[in-house]
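agent: user wants the structure for dihydroxy-acid dehydratase from Carpinus fangiana. delegating to structure tool.
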Amino acid sequence: MEVMVRCTPCTALRLRGKPRLAVVLFEINSHSLWTSVKVLRMGKVVIIRGEGPKGGPGKPEMLTPTSAIMGAGLGKEVALLTDGRFSGGSHGFVVGHICPEAQEGGPIGLIENGDIIDVDVEKRRIDVQLTDEEMELRRKKWTPPAYKANRGVLYKYIKNVQSASRGCVTDE
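agent: tool returned. relaying tokens verbatim.
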């Protein structure tokens, strides 16, 4: 399995060991975080998935949700994990460009509310506290989400784009 992750440089939330963090999932448009900041207080990890090259489509920028988290003063309390992208303008504890993406059946697409996640920055690992059997059961039940476009240029892009770990190219 090809795996790629990018983290923001973050001195305020340097996680050591394996902190156990609750999950809040946002599968709605990530811009709705501006109006949902109170929900963030319920969990320590926000997962925005379905924003990868195929799921986005095109890997939308996550500056809006990271700004909402920082603007709410939660940059030290909330981590954001996403298969979307972020630029150098994002601050806080952000792990992005996660591959394989949710649209393609990556593990980020199998996480459910209430799951416990271990984030170990030093070892560069993200682990969900589930047995192999539980993950396999979720994998078997998983069905791909509908594409956000079913014709035209975006559909052609979705059908041809490679994973972020391969550069999101469309000519292979």
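agent: one observation worth passing along. The domain at 4-166 is CATH 3.50.30.80 (Glucose Oxidase; domain 1).
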